[in-house]
Protein 1
Amino acid sequence: MLRRAGDVSPFADRFDRVRARMVELDVEVLCLSVGADLPWLCGYEAMPLERLTMLVVPVDGSATLVVPGLEAPRVTERPELFALRPWTETEDPVAIVADLVGPAVSVAVGDRTWARFVLDLQAALPSSQFVRSSSVTEALRAVKDDHEIAALAAAAVAADQVATQLQQGDVVLVGRTEADISADLGRRLVDEGHQRVNFAIVAAGANAASPHHEPGARVVGPDEVVLCDFGATMVDDNGVGYCSDITRCVWTGTPPSEVAEVYGVLAAAQQAAFDAVAPGVAASVVDRAARDVISAAGFGDRFVHRTGHGIGVEEHEEPYVVDGNDAPLVVGNAFSIEPGIYLPGRYGFRLEDIVVAVEGGGRRLNEVDRSLAVR
Ligand code: ZN
Ligand code: ZN
Ligand code: ZN
């Protein structure tokens, strides 16, 4: 029988790793609802609705996906991994979950589970202790398997296409509002194969000195920076969405030499951080590599955020590339490297790629030109 790529499920391996981690942590049952843990583990994403969806995974014994009956047809069934328990409009899903959890003492519940369900579950299971699911899943999700690297790479290629269109002038800048350009970038991310736009920051001139500027009515003029930081989710052939995230800057005109120098410092910092990436190297060392270059040029206090964040089914996850995170990188970690220099009242720059730790170093998933594009 022929197998398509999507039939080679990575989920069985994830269930095995999750259960091994549950043993380590003495967690008896894992309960996942809305949020990224659920699709990462089993390929199904819960709808964020008032009707409870919850996957109940005992450390030993078979898992059950409790799902509103009307949503059951959306589930790709994987009977070797979990049974389906659709509930009808007159049933109490919390009681069904409590029944499946049984006398378990230690229950891990999804970090993003709505409080109304957590509180009801706690009331229904008065002798259980609840911990966050991230204690089980976070470290596992931070190490991407080959399926995930391929999915992140595909999303990065699509984001690179949009960045190229931006750099080459296909995206008109001068005379348009930040909000209009942002919407344009979002449409292009979808055109290139993403399903869901997560954000498209467009910050012109002095607005670029605010790292998370909300694109607004500001019209882009000549001779200024346009900082564009955009990302979206692309669903892979297993039905799980993976994120892209890239930042590139354009100067509308010829940048003054001082501007070009500042950008040069930033580009050198980004390169230094990338060069520092290797398995066994602490994430904090990668952060320090970027920060040292920027500090040496006198802009240390103008680099106001961490160097990067992990990325996967969520835009921001472990490992964080930040001072204090001394955990060594391992092969399969995927994260952004995005130093910035922000000069309040004037302009700001950020340069961001997604990088994967591979044997002996780093691999950039974004390959689009890193210089300050001039339009
Ligand atoms: Zn950010
Ligand atoms: Zn970004
Ligand atoms: Zn980012």
Protein 2
Amino acid sequence: MSLLVIGTVAFDAIETPFGKTDKIVGGAATFISLAASYFTKKINLVSVVGDDFPTDAIDMLKKRGVNTAGLQIKEGEKTFFWSGRYHNDMNSRDTLDTQLNVLATFDPEIPQEYQDCSFLMLGNLAPAVQHQVLDRLHTRPKLVVLDTMNFWMDIALPELTSLLKRVDVLTINDEEARQLSKEYSLVKAAQKILAMGPKYLIIKKGEHGALLFHGNEVFFAPALPLEEVFDPTGAGDTFAGGFVAHLAKTKDYSFENMKSAIILGSAMASFCVEKFGTQRLTEINMEEIKQRVQSFVSLVNFEIELV
Ligand code: AMP
């Protein structure tokens, strides 16, 4: 059961109250693949970079077991670049710059060996490209998860709206849910968004956890209270990577199992924010992940007797 991941492989420049980075390796598909690589070894990546992208970053993905046969390298072109500045609360940020570069003309090619994919993670990217990937798969995967952001809601809403009818799970943050639904209450927003197509909706609320909606059911998972959040970039993608990889590994996409997948996604995201960029995701091990998941269990586990 392979997992097909599409999304940006990028350069990011980040400013947080703790410091500033020059161009470092980032991108939605990078974070998703790295997080997923701890749970499944059949990860097939589709993306595009320019010839300015370092080969050791591609080697780092390969070393984690990610198949990069579908990663196009465009000679003489530049990699997608994003720059953002976080506010003091580290929960909100301003985008300072988005340079599409190779993404502006990206025509995703699906290698034949990727065609058997059972799980598709449509990471943050132009909705038209996300549509193309679905069109180019001979059989629809068993589960299609979509992540997107306000940038695409601003410039490609019609394509995004039609894409919502083709996916099973949508993951967005609270601000994006409000923008998409034009509702302030997240409960009302969820009802409206579920009516637009996806069967499941995950609303990520940064340090305030994540909500899973399906029909009339709701599940809430907190985020782990951390002493220090260093850089939240990629936390949402890391969450999605852990989430979808757990479903791919267990081959069970019931609401009950999605609850466990959300805890795992949250645990992975809690590592991501501890250092700048992808660094923390390349150095953790399964023992640390197990301990983190256990911390989540302890955090929310309580007994109550009404008297
Ligand atoms: P997250 O913090 O999980 O929302 O994701 C941050 C990552 O998304 C960064 O590594 C960026 O390179 C990438 N990113 C930023 N803007 C876009 C965009 N418009 N489309 C696709 N990826 C983006």
